[in-house]
Amino acid sequence: MISPEQKIIIVGAGVFGLSTALWLARDGYQDITIFDRCAVDKNQYDPSNGCDGASADINKIFRATYGRKPHYQKLAMEARNMWLAWNEAIRKSKPDELPPCLAPGDKLLDICGVHHLADGPELLPRYASDLESMERTAKDFRKQQFRKASSTTCSDL
Ligand SMILES: Cc1cc2nc3c(=O)[nH]c(=O)nc-3n(C[C@H](O)[C@H](O)[C@H](O)COP(=O)(O)OP(=O)(O)OC[C@H]3O[C@@H](n4cnc5c(N)ncnc54)[C@H](O)[C@@H]3O)c2cc1C
């Protein structure tokens, strides 16, 4: 039986390694060490400074619609709240409380929206499925989706 005092090592400090460590820590595990072949503490996950993990990038797209995979959508919505809480925590921090790569004005998640384009007036089946699923499972988010081609209402499917 694993107890919270036992040593845990995680190999790989990408988003999966870090989130594993975070959730173990939140569950009470106290002695977790993450190893990585890259000096991520020094390069601060900067791809222009030698960090080549998939998680290291200058931006990432946050996808919240997953059609017929509602468990992914649920996960995305839960994650969205956490990212926004981290934005708020960063905003309230003093500069010297943050890692060198972050300043209080930085956002980890920017809700800037997304614009999908298609070849013709019909929605791609994937987008139609996403909206239909959202209508059933996340009505408030569905109201934030707009179809520009509709002449009657831009929020209509
Ligand atoms: C070009 C690209 C664009 C993407 N865009 C998006 C996007 O917009 N939105 C999105 O959600 N997802 C995106 N993804 C997917 C997402 O980036 C990955 O699913 C996620 O980052 C994988 O995280 P990871 O922790 O598994 O792997 P990684 O981030 O690759 O982390 C693995 C870590 O393990 C370390 N490592 C490897 N081997 C060893 C070893 N032997 N010893 C010690 N350390 C080791 C590496 O240095 C690395 O830091 C994109 C992926 C790519 C490649």
From TrEMBL:
Its cofactor is FAD. The keyword rRNA processing does not apply. PANTHER family: FAD DEPENDENT OXIDOREDUCTASE DOMAIN-CONTAINING PROTEIN, PEROXISOMAL SARCOSINE OXIDASE. Belongs to the MSOX/MTOX family. Residues 7-89 form the FAD dependent oxidoreductase domain. This is FAD dependent oxidoreductase domain-containing protein. Gene3D superfamilies: FAD/NAD(P)-binding domain. InterPro entries: FAD-dep_OxRdtase (IPR006076), FAD/NAD-bd_sf (IPR036188), MTOX (IPR045170). The lineage of its organism: Eukaryota, Fungi, Dikarya, Ascomycota, Pezizomycotina. Keywords: FAD, Flavoprotein, Oxidoreductase. The keyword Flavoprotein applies. It comes from the Eukaryota.
